[in-house]
Amino acid sequence: MSVQLLADLSVFVLSLLLGFEVIGRVPTTLHTPLMSAANSVHGIVLAGALLIALSAEGVFGYALVFVTAAFAAMNVVGGYVVTDRMLEMFRPRPGRTSGGER
Amino acid sequence: MGALDVVIRLVYLAVATCFVLGLHLMNSPVTARRGNLLSAGAMAVAVVATVAVLVETGTVRPWGWAALAAGAGLGAGLGLLLARRVMMTAMPQLVSLFNAVGGGAAALIGVHDFAVHSGGRDGSLPVVLDVLIGAVTFSGSLVAAGKLQGLVPGRPLVFPGVRLLTPALALIMVAAAVLVLVAGGGAVALAVLGAASLAFGVLMVLPIGGADMPVVISLLNAFTGTAVAMAGFALGNAVLITAGALVGASGAILTKLMADAMNRSLAGIVAGGFGTGDELSPGPAG
């Protein structure tokens, strides 16, 4: 086992534990927006899509980069925009107290 | 370690921190929108930092840049269009679609890593898990989106033999994974693994009723997070590992919370078809 792998494994396990704790108190109304927000966060796969271009060559390689980048970018941009639209519904209207009738 | 490398790693650390804080702010309706914006800002920074890595390393060929720019432009445009245009009621299936492409991207990173770094002979465990989980979540999420959109019948689809076919596919996946890992099965074994995983994803979601789809989408979302973390191992990239593991774990907890809120057991939902109450209602709402 290399030092790099051990370091990565530590980060992985601690991030898992953090993930178990971080959303513990979420109310039921926020379940779907939270699912969508978590969905956007794994859009970080776009960084991975960029990194594979470093070693891509040949028609197959470029095609792979193209499709991966398209998929990942769609995940990121669409994910954040749709989450924001969901959360817009929770914004209290001006001139009204929050929790009142919409 | 060069100066830029240090800066990039620190930026990635800050990005990962913002993802955690962003998700945490989603615990309350008052701060939720701020949390999403924080997360989105961190994502933009991560992408810029990664582009800086590409420029600094300088091994991306012109066609590579073209493929990246065209792909990212197309994906971003399509994602923006869909997210803006979709009706409020159709949002869950759109989230499922975005989840599908995220899983697909993670699986393709595994394929690339296999083709380039191991010379197409044998792969590492993270690469195998990346392709397996990514492919399952890609096809599974597409079926889930199709069910909610009405393209696939929303009722639990159980056909004769499916109870045997699913375990058989699981066996093929394990066998292909072992071949790739230790027996030098090469590209053919990886292709079999990918195809079996895609089929498994379809068969996993088909027997589940439309009313349970939000929980299933959340579960597949957690899968994608794990696949992205595996892609992070393959690429040796800490921010992918952190964000992926974060989504994998919080997605799993959220799946449990959603199932509890619907008074359903997660095991019962995933088992699908039988004894879930779905067959009692002719047309499940959803």
TrEMBL record, chain A:
Enzyme type, top EC level: translocase
Catalytic activity as recorded in UniProt: NAD(+) + NADPH + H(+)(in) = NADH + NADP(+) + H(+)(out)
GO molecular function, one term: proton-translocating NAD(P)+ transhydrogenase activity
Keywords: Cell inner membrane, Cell membrane, Membrane, NAD, NADP, Translocase, Transmembrane, Transmembrane helix
Signal peptide range in chain numbering: none
InterPro entries to which the protein is assigned, alphabetical: NADP_transhyd_a_C (IPR024605)
Domain annotation NAD(P) transhydrogenase alpha subunit C-terminal: ranges: 9-91
GO terms of biological process kind: NADPH regeneration
Keyword RNA-binding: no
Subcellular locations according to the entry: Cell inner membrane
Membrane topology: Multi-pass membrane protein
Record GO cellular component, one term: plasma membrane
Membrane-spanning parts: 6-24, 36-54, 60-83
E.C. number(s) listed in UniProt: 7.1.1.1
Function: The transhydrogenation between NADH and NADP is coupled to respiration and ATP hydrolysis and functions as a proton pump across the membrane.
Name of the featured protein: proton-translocating NAD(P)(+) transhydrogenase
Native organism: Nonomuraea zeae
